[in-house]
UniProtKB/TrEMBL annotation:
SUPFAM superfamilies: Ras GEF (SSF48366). Gene3D superfamilies: Ras guanine-nucleotide exchange factors catalytic domain (1.10.840.10), Son of sevenless (SoS) protein Chain: S domain 1 (1.20.870.10). It comes from Anopheles epiroticus. This is N-terminal Ras-GEF domain-containing protein. The keyword RNA-binding does not apply. Keywords: Guanine-nucleotide releasing factor. GO terms for cellular component: plasma membrane. Residues 31-40 have a biased composition (Polar residues). One of its GO terms (biological process) is Ras protein signal transduction. Residues 24-43, 219-254 are annotated as: Disordered.
Length: 329
């Protein structure tokens, strides 16, 4: 079920991406386009398949992030590269390389569209002070150009997104501080109202999960949903900028985790399973137990109808827990 949750959330991010344009990077002749559609090696060692970039050297792929013509800017490629490049280069190092590739007198018209997509798709990268130092440099270089009004708009949107994340994290911490308190008996609503409440919780938690969290989290996180520690471990950078690894021989992101939204989402699923099981096990007679089964079964059915598969799966899995499965209903 955890793997289904992983795939479902990843599909959510892919669905939110814009429709792919017909423009290819870089601009090619008809002969080159025909060769690339059949699968071939392009400029700089970039491999094409069916007209799209499949693989290539890191430096060549970095060059394609900022095409010479702004109209050729491909947001789908930018999303894919910024997500997967974390295995090979840190985000602040990548932005630094892009800035260094543009001489000081030259305007930053090619990098500002990239910055706009970056801040929108991966805003949590900019919680790193080293990233913000590069952004300050971009702002300074754009101060006396026609981009002077564009960059502040990007930064305002980024600030709003990061502020929203901080408020969300503070809210989660306040919930965590009361999690050990004894809860009084709950007066449950109808199955439909309960399912609607679960859907609101799911949307609130899933909204803040960044796509980069799937490559930054520990490989063992998705395998063990009941692990106690869902707090990301702090990473330290030495003089060379090398972060602490998560294990030898593991393909992990070079960037340290800056959020724990994915962990919170998985923890919510585990808590929901325990909640359903506890409410059923608290019933002292078969009649009350049947009512609880009907309540949660109805909520699971409604969740399935509206596409809230995570809550529905968590409820159904709680029915299969040994203490619940052995009960008479």
């Amino acid at each position: 079920s955890i793997h289904r949750l992983h795939n479902g959330l990843l599909a959510l991010f892919l669905l939110q991406k814009k429709t792919r344009t017909d423009k290819q990077l870089p601009r090619e002749s008809p002969l080159e386009q025909q060769q690339h559609s059949q699968g071939s090696l392009g400029t700089g060692g970039v491999m094409y398949g069916n007209g799209t970039i499949v693989s290539g050297p890191l430096e060549s792929l970095i060059d394609l992030l900022m095409p010479g013509n702004v109209e050729e800017f491909d947001q789908d490629y930018v999303f894919s590269f910024l997500l997967s490049a974390r295995f090979f280069i840190r985000s602040y190092e990548l932005l630094g390389k892009l800035l260094e590739s543009i001489p000081e007198p030259e305007p930053l018209e090619r990098i500002v569209p990239l910055l706009g997509v970056w801040t929108r798709m991966f805003p949590y990268d900019f919680r790193d002070e080293r990233m913000m130092n590069h952004v300050k440099h971009i702002v300074a270089r754009c101060a006396d150009t026609k981009l002077a009004n564009v960059v502040p708009q990007l930064l305002c949107a980024l600030l709003a997104r990061l502020t929203e994340l901080e408020n969300h994290e503070e809210e989660l911490r306040s919930y965590q501080s009361t999690v050990d308190n004894k809860t009084e008996s709950i007066s449950w609503p109808t199955a439909t109202q309960l399912a609607q409440l679960l859907c609101r919780i799911e949307r609130k938690l899933a909204k803040h999960v960044g796509p980069e969290e799937f490559v930054q989290c520990s490989p063992n996180l998705l395998k063990d949903p009941n692990r106690e520690d869902f707090t990301p471990k702090p990473t330290s950078a030495g003089p060379s900028g090398a972060g602490s690894g998560s294990g030898a021989g593991q393909a992990t992101s070079l960037d340290g985790k800056k959020t724990c939204n994915l962990e919170s989402y998985l923890e919510w699923s585990a808590r929901l399973r325990l909640l359903v099981a506890n409410e059923i096990l608290k019933c002292r007679n078969i009649q009350d137990r049947n009512k609880q089964f009907e309540l949660w079964s109805g909520a699971a059915q409604y969740c399935l109808l509206v596409g809230n598969y995570n809550s529905a799966t968590a409820i159904l899995e709680s029915f299969d827990l040994p203490p619940v499965a052995r009960l008479q209903v």
